[in-house]
Specification:
The chain is of the alpha/beta class. The protein contains 34 helices and 22 strands.
């Protein structure tokens, strides 16, 4: 039987009945030291409810909660507040701008932003675009541009701003001039990227406009994630004494529909925990996502307020424009606020797609008290009751409160109308996001609403004109002067920094001389190199290790004591392992960014650190090391955004390979990340086999990204705006010393002959292997020689991907220059005179070595670890996937038979001899000395 209910639906509390331990966050198990006084308070509340009503009682309770916080009583804050503005009119600051001039500027930019998208839809072009997102957020941006966004010439260093991707036409139209006068680019006519003269790029892509955009935001959800880690990295730079960032602010402009992305809300706790009051989210709450309402049956602003308040953020709601202030002031019994609280977003969207009479009847008419409040207002006046996100004064008050708030990040929830000012066909319609063109009627209405001096005859339905104010007009001079006061043009990207020196040979020698009798995995080899590089007085402070809670797995716990883990609060607790050499140590000046079990956040940190050369003029070198499977597979979108942002740094896919990380099973064993990485044009991937290869690749990468780059190992210029992805393994073996005649050029280009086969008269073959598979190939070389009289050369392929890219570039050159002598791809030239068939093998799926198959001059066969990973011993797994030495021998003999160089029965004999069909027959741990035979 259900509990007895009061008339309002709440359960009745029976006298003497035990109370819940926790009631709405208030601990009720504490002893009542004065029951009589407690009862007096309860009776007082009951009396207010009975004689003044629930609305009055609610007001008093809210006022008491507010007062309790002012007196630091310690009562938990409310998770949500009424559906009204956080800042009341009496607390709004004076608006310092010329609102009339700013309204005219906004009108010009609104028109030009919409016309740019509209013109891009003309026949023969039709390149897409978004016409309504900027229309809803123009006031938010203009208040920022004119009063808050600090440019890079500001004494404090300038702000970092994530502009909402779909609103980029307005940003581009607004602030695109490098010389300072936006009028210089108000003639751009399209949104194309491939055509050199086309002008504006469609969305915020720094790689396409490297002097303009700083941050890509079109992949929704990554903007808020990356903004949080940028604000955190700014504090990191400041606390380490590398740069004073105390006067810089991070702004992220987001959509309310975008907040459904897991990345959008997934790390807001970090921002609160580290008290990032240098960060402000501005959520454009136009209540619509791409196809319909964000929360048709609910209230997204209230929902987001609860999320952010619960996470510890300062929340500022900007819901209603100034026209609502007199109505709210007259709402003595709370009837209007009650309607605002109860009306779902779906209805609010509908109201703005109708007219004033509809709003009068269906909103105000639902309560006789609110109907009476507007009986003296005309339908037009009701229709002109604006939303807060379109009111300069309300927005200014919110922005000012955000930048002045201390101790917490701030989120501004601004209510707007999607497609505002674009006309009745656009405003608040479900299809608004997909609408790209304005009709002739729309154009005329849009012009009239913005009060623009454009004659009817100029409103061509295909190519309507841009509005170009005179450079000497009040509006243009006002806009330019505001930007001069705030530190110059925004957005603007710089990439000016002092190049770093090349690492000393001494630091590399620790890997080049090999490991002697000690067995060392390539993961540990890289960590050893990093330790040496950290000792360099110039380079050392620039390295930033980034770890998603696997430091001990990768051997980086050895850095805990010497370089410490960054924590802005230091270490206030007594560490349980404080007596150990590798104790966990945190510090306000710590170097290591230890992100917890958080690959998405780690990738965002990698991006912030790897773009410090441009955002701050301070080149920092991120070393992001992760469990191989959880890199490109889990956060590939983040790496794609990092590429767009021109991030530089090192990505370490540790515990790489399908069979090397044995025992972890299907979700951990990685045989495909090299293939995923190859799809990212900015990722330079290497699969080194030996520690000396790691050393040469690392030095070349540092010179390319941060130093005076002499160019590609094969000649020619190469971009510094790349990320180096090294796959390293956790299987230890004795690392050979660097050969005296090492082909460093080939190593860096992607392949070199590591060990020639024995000189004999028998058949020849070429074994191509990468990473941990090179020792298997070396063992196969021995077996081929001793059991089958076959001489096989072993090649270390350090990069299948770079070989393929270089070959593709040569093919494109030959396509476009048929009159010239054809160039030859590097991989083709190396294998052209190599005798015998080519067999390629790696601990990756066959598609990885097959990248170079089209350019193998005499054909190529491959072995790989296709399929899901399994838990077993390494030899058993390699026999299962047929990539072990014995399987390589069988494949080589079969290829020789295909060439007619041996009898086909030899392959059958090898299958029987080595029992390659039997997983249990795989040798336990039979290896060759990885040093090349002399």
């Amino acid at each position: 039987m259900s509990a007895p209910q009061q008339k309002d639906g709440d359960p009745v509390q029976e006298s003497g009945a035990p109370r819940a331990v926790i009631t709405d966050g208030l601990p009720s198990q504490l002893p009542d030291i004065d029951p009589d006084e407690t009862q007096e308070w309860i009776d007082s509340l009951d009396a207010v409810v009975e004689h003044a009503g629930r609305d009055r009682a609610r007001y008093l309770m809210l006022r008491l909660l507010e007062r309790s916080r002012e007196r630091q009583v310690g009562v938990p804050a409310l998770r949500s507040t009424d559906y009204i503005n956080t800042i009341p009119p009496t607390r709004e600051p004076w608006f310092p701008g010329d609102e009339h001039v700013e309204r005219r500027i906004r009108a010009y930019i609104r028109w030009n932003a919409a016309i740019m998208v509209h013109r891009a839809q003309r026949p023969g072009i039709a390149v897409g675009g978004h016409i309504s997102s900027y229309a809803s957020s123009a006031s938010l941006y203009e208040v920022g541009f004119n009063h808050f966004f600090r440019g890079k010439d500001h004494p404090g260093g300038g702000d970092q701003i994530w502009f909402q991707g779909h609103a980029s036409p307005g940003i581009y139209r607004a602030r695109s001039s490098r010389a300072g006068s936006p009028s210089s680019r108000w003639t751009v006519s399209a949104r194309r990227s491939a055509t050199p003269a086309a002008g504006c790029r469609p969305t915020p892509h720094p790689r396409l406009m490297p002097e303009f955009w700083e941050f890509p935001t079109v992949s929704m959800g990554l903007g808020p994630l990356n903004a949080i880690y940028q604000a955190r990295f700014n504090r990191y730079l400041h606390n380490r004494g590398i740069k004073d960032t105390s006067d810089q602010h991070v702004w992220a402009f987001l959509g309310d529909g975008e907040m459904d992305e897991p990345e959008s809300l997934g790390v807001i706790g970090l921002a609160a925990r580290e008290e990032l009051d240098n960060l402000t989210f501005v959520v454009n709450c136009n209540l619509q996502r791409l196809d319909g309402p964000v929360r048709g049956n609910g209230k997204v602003i209230q929902e987001l307020e609860s999320f952010f308040r619960g996470a510890g953020w300062n929340v500022v709601k900007v819901i209603w424009g100034r026209e609502w202030d007199p109505l709210l002031a007259a709402d003595r019994d709370g009837a209007l606020v009650n309607l605002m609280n109860q009306t779902p977003d779906g209805d609010y969207q509908t109201y703005k797609a109708e007219d004033g009479a509809f709003v009068r009847e269906h909103f105000f008419g639902r309560d006789p008290r609110t109907r009476k409040m507007v009986e003296s207002m005309s339908d037009k006046e009701i229709w002109n009751l604006s939303r807060g996100g379109h009111d300069y004064r309300k927005v200014y008050a919110a922005f000012k409160a955000a930048v002045e708030h201390k101790g917490q990040p701030t989120v501004i929830l601004a209510k707007t109308i999607k497609g505002w000012t674009l006309g009745s066909h656009f405003e608040g319609r479900n299809s608004t996001h997909q609408m790209k063109k304005l009709t002739a009627e729309d154009l005329a209405m849009f012009r009239d609403r913005l009060y623009l001096d454009i004659p009817d005859e100029a409103l061509d339905k295909t190519l309507p004109p841009y509005y170009k104010p005179d450079p000497d007009s009040d509006e243009m001079q006002y806009m330019l002067e505001r930007r001069r006061q705030l530190g110059g043009a925004v957005p603007r990207r710089r990439a000016e920094f002092k190049t770093l020196k090349s690492p000393d040979d001494k630091a590399l020698d620790v890997l080049r001389r090999g490991s002697g009798k000690q067995e060392v995995a390539t993961t540990m080899a890289f960590v050893r190199l990093l330790k040496e590089l950290l000792k360099d007085k110039e380079l050392g402070p620039r390295f930033v290790p980034i770890i998603p809670d696997e430091a001990r797995t990768f051997g980086l716990d050895s850095l805990f004591s010497s370089h410490k883990i960054y924590n802005p609060a230091g270490q206030r607790y007594t560490s349980v392992d404080r007596e150990l050499m590798l104790a966990y140590k945190e510090s306000e000046q710590g170097v290591i960014l230890h992100e917890g079990i958080n690959e998405a956040g780690s990738t965002a940190s990698f991006t912030a650190v790897g773009t410090s050369y441009s955002t701050h003029g301070e080149p920092m070198i991120p070393i992001y090391i992760f469990y191989s499977m959880f890199g490109f597979q889990r956060t590939g979108d983040g790496f794609w955004a990092a590429a767009d942002q021109l991030t530089r740094g090192f990505i370490l896919g540790a515990t790489a390979g399908r069979t090397t990380l044995n025992g972890e099973g299907l979700q951990h064993e990685d045989g495909h990340s090299l293939l995923l990485a190859h799809t990212n044009p900015a990722v330079v991937s290497y699969d080194p086999a030996f520690s000396f290869e790691v050393a040469h690749i690392t030095r070349d990468a540092l010179v390319r990204m941060y130093g005076d780059d002499p160019g590609s190992p094969l000649g020619g210029h190469r971009s510094p705006d790349v990320m180096y992805y090294l796959t390293v393994y956790n299987e230890p073996f004795t690392q050979p010393a660097e050969p005296e005649d090492l082909d460093v050029r080939g190593l860096l280009a992607g392949m070199y002959r590591y060990a020639e086969g024995p000189q004999r008269d028998g058949p020849k073959a070429q074994l191509l292997a990468s990473g941990v598979a090179v020792p298997w190939a070396l063992r196969a070389q021995e077996l081929l020689a001793q059991d089958w009289n076959v001489s096989a050369d072993v090649w270390s392929v350090t990069s299948w991907g770079e070989l393929r890219r270089q070959a593709d570039a040569v093919a494109e050159h030959n396509l476009l220059h048929p009159e010239e002598e054809p160039q030859v791809p590097y991989v083709t030239s190396r294998l052209q005179d190599a005798a015998g068939p080519v067999v390629a093998v790696s601990d990756w799926m066959r598609s990885v070595p097959d990248l170079i198959a089209p350019y193998a001059p005499h054909g190529m066969t491959s072995l790989g670890t296709d399929g899901f990973g399994l838990s077993d011993t390494r030899p058993a797994l390699r026999r299962h996937f047929h990539v072990d030495a014995e399987s390589i021998v069988v494949r080589t003999l079969a290829s020789l038979a295909d060439w007619g160089h041996v009898d086909r029965d030899l392959a059958r004999q090898a299958v029987e001899k080595y029992q390659v069909r039997d997983v249990q027959a795989a040798p336990a741990d039979e290896r060759s000395d990885p040093s090349p035979a002399t």
